[in-house]
Design brief:
heterotrimer, A alpha/beta (617), B alpha/beta (526), C alpha+beta (352), B: 526 residues, alpha/beta, Dimethylsulfoxide Reductase, domain 2, Rossmann fold, Barwin-like endoglucanases, 3 domains, five-stranded parallel beta sheet, globular, C: 352 residues, alpha+beta, Ubiquitin-like (UB roll), N-terminal domain of TfIIb, five-stranded mixed beta sheet, three-stranded antiparallel beta sheet, 8 helices, elongated
């Protein structure tokens, strides 16, 4: 029996015991902490101490329900774990008194419950059947919000390091084949088949090879990788180790953005613990396989998420993409063969090795297997992290998981794939989510950020937002991206202020086409996507801005006019006080008027009017 | 140079000793610097932390004047560890036992004490140099400008032969020559013992050859070297001197001695571009044309004979140097008639075997590296590929010679001298941009010494040796050793060579510019 | 060496394996413009002006960084290619001063040449252009970053040819700029003013200070010569205009140095025209130098030397020849001493 197996039986035992005690677990991912999780934790500790309760207090990572943070889980021996949302220090006493002292869950604050031996509590949705989780799968995110990410024991007790244990007993090529069989494609956005990439690196000549994990997640609205790193750091390490063994590398580097301090802290802790237990380092589990991992904090540039720019950055050079080929699989870090995958890809590996490629391939669609983690943001009711099987439709995500559009407004578009992706309109809601469908619709999978937009969103403004981002983050190396995105942005800016001319649409299209076809790296080539998709699906909005000088969404201030409807105005004078520009005048009890020359279009008057007498158009 | 500059990009290791190429030979330095980017290794032996020392894999900071112990020490280790190239030694050399016996006593411990280099670095450097297949040794005046300069040079040859790093691409012993045509001037027989092409004046056969060519009786008695000339002038036996484009008062060691020599002579002619310190002492000054105003050839360090082309007419009433000399010769009854420098070159080629195959037409574009004996010979990028000039390479065991003058109580600092990037021996002070960029001497001293002296960068000190005394501003830097001051020789306002020692290598008559004892005092504030 | 055969614009061309599509296209006689490409430097594939169509490729292909492979079908002038090139030129010109009339580089500027060839005019997008201050802070090089097209040749030459890497790209996106560490002036950086960046700049962004405004590129006569400074033996071209040496430009055909030089060779030959040059023979009379004719001076030297030779013998006369003069000068000097005077007392500073 190996040391790991000996270790595991003990660890599993105490893990089971721990789970079966009265416990309070606070969600302390970055989202939980940002929502005040640490203060909640303090309040819980003091409340428990004051009351002298015999209860374990632990923490976990983000379970996915960011909308409900701070999230606290409470369980009694044998009973369902109840996950409460919106728990602030002032509601702690109520929860503890109710759930732990009176042993009655506080139903009105409960989000979901996870049943154990006893039958579930009444009136609380069971996780699997709850609105947020019913259409989800929990594979790569299975430990998120469930285990203590800083405890290697929790990881081992939940099957951790069984994959590397299994892998080192396998032939290297068999591992590569298993990954191929799973159909796993790169989860960073490109969607290149992972097994094929591993095969390339495996086959590449040279004794020194590297494993590099891309944790430089930079898309606006994307936090999948952060959640995985914070919630299951060992899975990423283990995935890299399996890759290292399979392709013949002894060194791994995680390039993690410096803006993720908690992820870096937990990764470093995980590396330290794994080394302590002999699960990482020299002669892992007596196999003769050596593998070390170190963290390289990112340089703060979006482009460093592009794999070759990332490699340059690790080498201490400016993060600028290299020309491909040669691909990193042949000439990567320090010109050595390098297997470069993103966080989610590596995190999937231990599950695939443990359960087999077929198990994984059973999820998803013909060409896009398995599950994918998405981040749901924007004008929706339930923002957060979700893991879904490939092939689910955008509409299911919006309506079932995200709980529909916020405030009952009308859905307008969803941006998939960040600045490199595109905006999809209502008629694409039935589009199954897989790599190829998204590309054909003009968007892309990207790393998994979904930004939902409602009827109040101006699509020209959205394109402008993303172009502003790509323009600022362009590395400056190639002409089309550096100069071209700047010009796209300038045109969009002038359209938004009503200075657009009809030829601008042609210019946008022509420029977008040239950038797409001639830029050096994927970031440049995809930078025009937001412009191209909004032009494709929302051309009328562009035309309205340019020809009618109107913003249909009522967002572009320069194109708005505010007028007071005479028949509704009662002359109360509230709007006069609200106007910072002294643009409104009028006698009491007589209809007021707005001086268009003075109006700065700030809109401050509109909500103040109790009679809906101010019209924006 | 045994090898070529092109070879700098084709070696796996540079061993740079007594040379500061990034300043004194910038394009050679650039080739070394860019080679390093491609993984070429570098050993630097220099008392100063020169730019290359900062880039070096191994930096041996040996004390000035300890090159022989250093090289002997490296050879000791190489032999002790059996890293010498036995096949090369067997086939191509003789005298190995002599060398072995000499270096036997240069143990790492002893050498470390003599040079100040830690023993571990001696081992590292010896092993790296000996075990790298393509290793190139480069030196410059840090090796030659000592009273043991010839012995220093032979020591570099010893270590290169010992490791078989000669006669191959990417190897060799490569002295980067200091001046644009110092190689050519030597090749042309501007040496007291040599006709063009190193044919000896003492050799009757050579004498007969040149007598026939030039139609006069020639002297078989070797002439005076520069230091001997200066001594003879001071003694009164040398009465007249014709100085062509040299400024010995500024550039030769012990300037006061040189000035005395010039003042003593009956007649001095100086042919110059500018009013040099030496020209001031002349009886007649003849204005020469610059390189841009005349045709001709220069021969570079890598023995490449290249064209100099007339781009503009001579400035003012100046004349090409060759024309002036011919005019004087004609007036003295020995007419030398040349219509164009090309005719002179053809005469050179006809009398100089190594130039025999070179003519202006062949060097129109890229020049040719001598030896190039025949019109169809492609030139010689690498010397000694099959044999050495004397057949087998001769090892010679060489013992340490300490410098002529070392610091003592009265003159406690060691002065070493050299060149900086922005200036050359002559003319650069007359370039407006270069002179504005580096207008004055900035002697380098160590912060510890600066503290003792109470000076900061930019302050002025008085530097005094047994021979003279000069003022200079200082640059306080830890690039020099404590107890050391480093100065350039570019500035007539700070004539460094008034300080340098009047001591010469007995064979080459090269002055010991690299070591002199001086005293330093903070100068009174002006 | 194994070769590959490909088709460029319908023409078959065979090239050694490892040849780029660009080189193959040139070999086939096609016109493919380049801005960032340089045969002696690494290839960033950055400017994208060399894009071509390769059958089967998803996008246009930068020909300078794509290896030619067997059977490849390349088109160098399809509408898509021309459209891309013109657009790239429009983008570059939109952010470039329209001052070709007074630009030092005019006539020797790739941007100008390609704009002419493709009939691309400035102002296509009418957007923001850089307004950097002219960098005129040092004695040797003037940098006008408004004219920089960010091809990066300068920084590659600095790193790869001079081994220094004094300059690199800084900032991002449209604000990207080539500059020194911390964006300090060249004069405050570790730059050694070798001017390799100037030599390789395809536009008027980098110029030799001394030559600015002195002559148009096409008026300059270039005379290849060998450097008068150290013994490395660099070659370069003296730039001559109206009988004056304006400065120096490097010449790629130079055997030891190519286009690279040091500060002295590139910026130091103005000493030739220094007003302190000696321009007429001088004879010291009563301790003062007095101008004389050549006849008088030469006669005096000949008679004085003759006199001394007669009185004290040939060996009482010596000559210092010169390591800075030509071989011809040195040969004549030693011949004069040996055959004319009759002594071997000739030496030079052979040891310095």
């Amino acid at each position: 029996m190996s040391t790991l197996q000996q270790m595991r039986s003990g660890i599993e035992e105490s893990y089971k015991e721990k789970q079966n005690r009265a416990r309070i677990v606070v969600g302390l991912g970055t989202c939980g902490i940002a929502a005040g999780g640490n203060k909640v934790m303090e309040a819980i500790k003091s409340e428990v101490a004051t009351k002298g309760l015999d209860v374990d207090i632990d923490f976990t990572s983000c379970i996915g329900m960011c909308f409900a943070e701070p999230v606290v889980e409470i369980s009694l021996p044998g009973q369902s774990s109840v996950i409460y949302g919106g728990v602030f220090p002032d509601s702690v006493a109520k929860l503890i008194d109710g759930h732990l002292v009176a042993k009655t869950p506080v139903t009105e604050m409960a989000q979901i419950q996870i049943p154990r031996d006893a039958s579930p509590y009444e009136g609380i949705p069971v996780m699997d059947k709850s609105g947020y989780y019913a259409k989800q799968v929990r594979s790569v995110t299975s430990r998120l919000g469930r285990t203590n990410p800083e405890s290697i024991e929790d990881y081992i007790a939940t099957g951790g390091y069984a994959a590397i244990e299994k892998a080192i007993s396998m032939e290297r090529l068999d591992i590569v084949n298993e990954v191929k069989k799973s159909g796993l494609r790169g989860r960073g956005g490109g969607g290149f088949p992972t097994g094929t990439k591993w095969q390339f690196v495996h086959d590449a000549a040279g004794s020194k090879k590297y494993i590099v994990c891309n944790a430089d997640e930079g898309d606006p609205g994307a936090f999948m990788d952060r959640s995985v790193l914070e919630g299951d750091p060992h899975a990423v390490l283990e995935g890299m180790m399996v890759a290292g063994y399979a392709i013949g590398a002894d060194e791994g580097i995680i390039y993690c953005r410096a803006e993720y301090p908690l992820a870096i802290k937990r990764l470093n802790l995980a590396i330290e613990k794994a080394e302590e237990l002999g699960l990482m380092g020299d002669n892992i589990l007596g196999s003769g396989f050596n593998f070390k991992i170190r963290i390289k904090a990112g340089a703060g540039a979006f482009v460093c998420g592009e794999e070759t720019a990332l490699l340059n950055s690790i080498e201490g050079k400016r993060g600028m993409p290299r020309v491909r080929p040669p691909f990193p699989a042949h000439k990567g870090l320090w010109q050595k063969p390098t297997c470069l995958n993103n966080v989610e890809t590596f995190a999937n590996i231990p599950f695939i090795i443990r359960n087999g490629g077929d198990w994984y391939a059973a999820m998803g669609t013909e060409k896009s297997k398995g599950s994918k983690v998405f981040c749901l943001t924007g004008k929706i009711n339930q923002t957060g992290l979700c893991e879904v099987p490939m092939g689910i439709t955008m509409g299911e995500i919006l309506n079932d998981i995200a709980g529909g559009v916020l405030g009952g407004k009308k859905f307008k578009a969803v941006q998939s794939g960040g600045p490199s992706g595109g905006c999809l309109p209502t008629d694409k809601l039935d589009l199954p989510i897989d790599y190829d469908s998204l590309i054909s619709a003009g968007a892309m999978m990207g790393s998994g950020g979904l930004v939902f937009m409602d009827e109040d969103t101006c699509m020209v403004d959205v394109a402008k937002f993303f172009l502003n981002f790509t323009q600022l983050e362009s590395c400056g190396k190639c002409t089309p991206c550096r100069e071209g995105t700047k010009r796209l942005l300038e045109i969009l800016e002038r359209i938004c202020v009503g200075a657009g001319v009809p030829e601008d649409i042609d210019t946008l299209e022509r420029l977008a086409k040239v950038i797409k076809s001639s830029a050096l790296c994927a970031l440049g080539q995809t930078a025009p996507n937001p412009v191209m998709t909004t032009l494709r699906y929302f051309r009328d909005e562009y035309e309205a801005h340019i020809i009618d000088k109107k913003c249909p969404a009522g967002l572009c201030a320069e194109l708005l006019t505010f007028t007071i409807l005479k028949d509704k105005c009662v002359g109360c004078g509230v709007c006069i006080k609200a106007c910072p520009a002294e643009a409104i005048s009028g006698e009491k009890k007589a209809a007021h008027v707005i001086d268009a020359a003075k109006c700065i279009k700030c809109g401050a008057c509109v909500p103040k009017c109790k009679f809906d007498a101010i019209a924006k158009a | 140079m045994t090898n070529s500059f092109a070879d700098y990009l084709n070696t796996d290791l540079f061993f740079v000793i007594g040379s500061n190429p990034t300043e004194a030979h910038p394009m050679a330095g650039a080739k070394i610097m860019s080679s390093l980017l491609n993984g070429t290794k570098l050993i630097v032996a220099d008392p100063r932390r020169i730019e290359l020392a900062e880039k070096a894999d191994i930096w041996l900071q040996h004390r000035p004047g300890t090159d022989i112990p250093l090289l002997n020490g490296l050879m000791h280790i190489i032999i002790k560890e059996g890293l010498h190239d036995k096949k090369f030694i067997e086939e191509r050399t003789e005298g190995f036992e002599d060398l072995k016996a000499t270096v036997e006593t240069y143990t790492p411990k002893r050498v470390s004490e003599m040079t100040g280099v830690p023993e571990k670095l001696l081992y590292d450097a010896a092993r790296l140099y000996a075990t790298t297949a393509k290793a190139m040794l480069c030196y410059t005046l840090g090796i030659t400008e000592h009273i043991c300069g010839v012995d220093n040079v032979m020591s570099t040859a010893n270590i290169a032969m010992l490791t078989g790093h000669l006669g191959k691409e990417g190897c060799g012993v490569n002295p980067q020559r200091g001046q644009n045509n110092v190689q050519g001037a030597c090749d042309m027989g501007a040496l007291p013992g040599d006709y063009p092409g190193y044919q000896k004046v003492a050799n009757a056969e050579a004498q007969a050859k040149f007598e026939k060519a030039w139609g006069v009786k020639l002297s078989g008695k070797p002439g005076l070297t520069i230091p001997d000339m200066m001594d003879a002038a001071v003694e009164g036996t040398l009465k007249a001197m014709f100085v062509l484009g040299e400024d010995p008062v500024l550039t030769d060691p012990d300037a006061n001695h040189i000035k005395k020599a010039f003042n003593k002579m009956d007649f001095v002619v100086v042919q110059e571009l500018f009013m040099s310190e030496t020209a001031k002492l002349a009886d007649v000054i003849l204005p020469g044309a610059s390189f841009a105003e005349k045709d001709g050839t220069f021969t570079s360090s890598e023995r490449r004979v290249q064209r100099v082309r007339k781009a503009i007419e001579p400035i003012g009433d100046t004349r090409p140097d060759w024309w002036i000399i011919c005019e004087i010769s004609k007036r003295m009854g020995y007419p030398m008639e040349y219509a164009h420098p090309e005719q002179i070159f053809n005469e050179i080629a006809s009398l100089t075997p190594s130039y025999g195959g070179i003519n202006y037409e062949r060097i129109e574009y890229t020049g040719l590296q001598w030896p190039c004996p025949t019109a169809d010979h492609p030139g010689t990028p690498v010397l000694h590929t099959k044999s050495f000039a004397r057949g087998k390479g001769l090892f010679k065991g060489i013992e340490h010679t300490p410098p002529a003058e070392m610091p003592d109580e009265e003159y406690p600092y060691l002065l070493s001298t050299g060149r900086i990037l922005y200036h050359y021996n002559v003319t650069t002070r007359y370039s407006s941009a270069l002179d504005a960029h580096r207008p004055e001497e900035m002697a380098m001293i160590h912060p510890a010494d600066a503290a003792t002296l109470g000076v900061c960068t930019g302050d002025t000190v008085q530097v005094t040796s047994r021979r003279g005394s000069v003022q200079t501003k200082v640059n306080v830097t830890d690039k020099v050793l404590t107890g050391m001051i480093w100065m350039s020789f570019h500035y007539k306002e700070t004539p460094t060579n008034e300080l340098t020692v009047n001591a010469f290598d007995p064979v080459s008559k090269t002055g010991e510019y690299k070591v002199a004892a001086v005293r330093i005092e903070k100068a009174a504030q002006v | 060496m194994p070769t590959v055969t490909l088709t460029v614009d319908g023409k078959q061309v065979s090239v050694p394996k490892g040849t780029t599509v660009l080189e193959a296209a040139w070999k086939a006689g096609a016109f493919v413009p380049t801005l960032c490409h340089d045969p002696e430097l690494t290839k960033p594939g950055a400017c994208r002006i060399c894009v071509v169509e390769v059958k089967g490729a998803r996008n246009l292909v930068a020909s300078c960084v794509t290896d030619a492979v067997e059977g490849m079908v390349v088109e160098t002038a399809t509408p898509a290619v021309v459209e891309a090139r013109k657009t790239i030129l429009e983008l570059l010109l939109d952010n470039h001063p329209e001052d070709c009339l007074t630009c030092h580089q005019a006539g020797d500027c790739k941007l100008q040449d390609y704009a002419y060839f493709y009939n691309v005019k400035p102002g296509a997008f009418g957007g923001e252009a850089h307004k950097y201050d002219l960098e005129d802070d040092n004695l040797f090089i003037v940098r006008n970053m408004n004219k920089c097209i960010l091809c990066g040749k300068c920084l590659r030459a600095c790193e790869e040819k001079q081994g220094r890497a004094v300059i690199d790209f800084a900032y991002r996106g449209f604000k990207t700029k080539v500059t020194t560490a911390m964006d300090k002036p060249l004069a405050d950086s570790v730059c050694v003013s070798c001017g390799s960046c100037v030599a390789i700049c395809p536009t008027g962004a980098l110029t030799e200070k001394a030559m600015l405004g002195k002559a148009r590129k096409w008026e300059i006569e270039k005379v290849r010569t060998t450097c008068p400074f150290c013994g490395v033996g660099c070659n370069f071209d003296l730039n001559v205009h109206q009988g004056k040496v304006l400065g120096v430009t490097s010449n790629a055909a130079s055997p030891t140095n190519g286009r690279d030089m040091c500060v002295k060779g590139r910026f130091g030959v103005d000493y030739v025209h220094n007003p302190n040059r000696l321009t007429t023979p001088l004879i010291k009379k009563n301790g003062q130098f007095v101008e004389s004719s050549w006849e008088e001076a030469l006669d005096l030297v000949a008679s004085k030397l003759g006199e001394i030779k007669g009185k004290y013998g040939s060996d009482s006369i010596a000559a210092l020849s010169s390591a800075r003069c030509t071989n011809e000068d040195n040969f004549v000097m030693q011949k004069f001493m040996r055959a004319g005077i009759g002594t071997n007392n000739v030496d030079h500073c052979a040891r310095t």
